[in-house]
Automatic annotation (TrEMBL):
Residues 69-84 have a biased composition (Polar residues). This is Fimbrial protein. The chain crosses the membrane at residues 43-64. Residues 1-28, 69-92 are annotated as: Disordered. The lineage of its organism: Bacteria, Pseudomonadati, Pseudomonadota, Alphaproteobacteria, Hyphomicrobiales. Keywords: Membrane, Transmembrane, Transmembrane helix.
């Protein structure tokens, strides 16, 4: 069996339509060239094998990192714990030593506020940005109003009525030839 790329075509009498010359069987390679070809083939197979193994190792490491929980990780340094003469009390002391070194995260202060809106007003949407909350409301008269409220300070910042009637005034535009104020 030959290793060249045309070996299957010779048995089926395949004729290349672009090359009208009859196929000539290739002469066997020189033993020195065949030896070099085998070395290169072996090097290529070993390189591909190593690459596949390394890719699998990286994939396994990524999967391990994604699936491992933070409780699985042990602290890098061991802490010296005191021993207690009472059996079974050492576990409580070691937990207290670990908890003493890592302070609990600060709990944000709870804020309770109320916004007075006219009776029958519906809130259509809301948006929160830093300490401000913007409410899009529908008034009982059918107008849309934007209410901007500072919930930390507890006061209204702005109330904007949106007028969509056909007789509503358009915003005033600056004339194009106006000179800038100095």
């Amino acid at each position: 069996m030959r290793d060249d790329y045309q070996s299957g075509y010779e048995n089926m009498d395949y004729q290349d339509p672009y090359n009208q010359q009859p196929m000539q069987p290739q002469a066997p390679l020189d033993p020195a060239v065949e030896k070099v070809r085998r070395k290169l083939m072996r090097l290529m197979i070993v390189s591909i094998g190593i690459t596949i193994v390394l890719i699998l190792i990286i994939l396994a490491a990524v999967i391990y990192k994604v699936t491992s929980s933070p409780s699985d990780k042990a602290p890098a340094s061991t802490t010296k714990t005191e021993t207690s003469p009472v059996p079974g009390a050492n576990a409580d002391l070691s937990n207290q030593a670990v908890n003493a070194k890592t302070p609990a995260p600060a709990v944000p202060e709870f804020i309770k506020r109320s916004i007075a809106l006219p009776q029958g007003t519906r809130i259509l949407s809301q948006s929160l940005s830093n300490d401000m909350i913007a409410l899009e409301t529908l008034t009982p008269e059918g107008n849309t109003e934007l209410v901007i409220y500072d919930y930390r300070q507890g006061h209204l910042v702005a109330g904007i009525t949106v007028d969509t009637s056909p007789v509503a005034k358009q915003p005033v535009e600056e004339p194009a030839n106006a000179s800038p104020a100095q």
